[in-house]
Description:
By secondary structure, the chain is mostly helical. Helix 2 runs parallel beside helix 11 (269-294), helix 3 (57-86) packs antiparallel against helix 11 and helix 10 (230-263) runs antiparallel to helix 11. The termini are far apart. It contains 12 helices and 3 strands; from the N terminus they run αβααβααααβααααα.
Amino acid sequence: MNITLSHPTHFILLGIPGLEPYYVFIAFIFLLVYMISLIGNVTLLFVIRVDRSLHEPMYFFLSMLSSVDLVLTNLTTPKMLSVLWLDAKEIYFEACLTQMFFIHAFACIESSVLLVMAFDRYLAICNPLRYKSVLTNRVVLLAGLSSVVRGIGAVLPLPILFRRLSLCNNNVIHHSFCDHIAVIKLACTDSTINSLYGLAVALLIVAVDLASIVWSYVLILRAVFKLKSREAQVKALSTCASHICAILVFYTTVVLSSVVQRFAKTVPLFVIILLANVYLMLPPLMNPIIYAVRTKQVRRRIKILLHCPRNH
């Protein structure tokens, strides 16, 4: 097989076909979201780092979430902006596979971190006396490392499987970044294994994690409603509010984007691409806002950093 024909030296990212007249406006929105995401997540990481009262498992997991969000938003947005604003559509073959790998790996890692955070809330509410003895710094570190290994291990076969496909000089990607489904559509040989493996990863990671999170909250709600005091019930549930919001933002966008991209044949291409951008850009934007608004300790520290008076 001719290697040059199988693997072009570069791909062409078309951006968001069908919305070309609006590229300047769309890029401005993307840039605004990107800047807010960077500032929000860096601020959150800094606050947790400098405030020793936040050196607890819940906030360590939140640091992991912010770190993953920073990676995800930096993997895609700068290149998307260059495509939309500067018409810099070329991306090298190896760079495209690298981007594809890390996007999906870190999406899996984020799902794992959200699952670990659900266990953290379960333990804090259902078994508070064992909370500190179970979630030691060593366990927190192992949970973070396990999330990374799980995400990388699950996604590593994607670029390996892609290399076995022949592209026959078809190098135009109808997308704004190297998404797995968009990339394997370039193949002129059978890509069934690639599609099935990608679907299997989505089901085994997202479906299993989401089902586990839902089950943990069933146990949490059962424990909360056993509390005699209404005030205690509200306080217990309020500690979960930020995490629930983060879950809804991430899994709603991931599931919607995945379902539409795989099964909705009549949906316009630009809608599919915009949904894919939303699932990568919305969680990094919303998570620091959610935790800054909903978590009193984080909000207090941010006010101190901004020299704002505290509300009594």
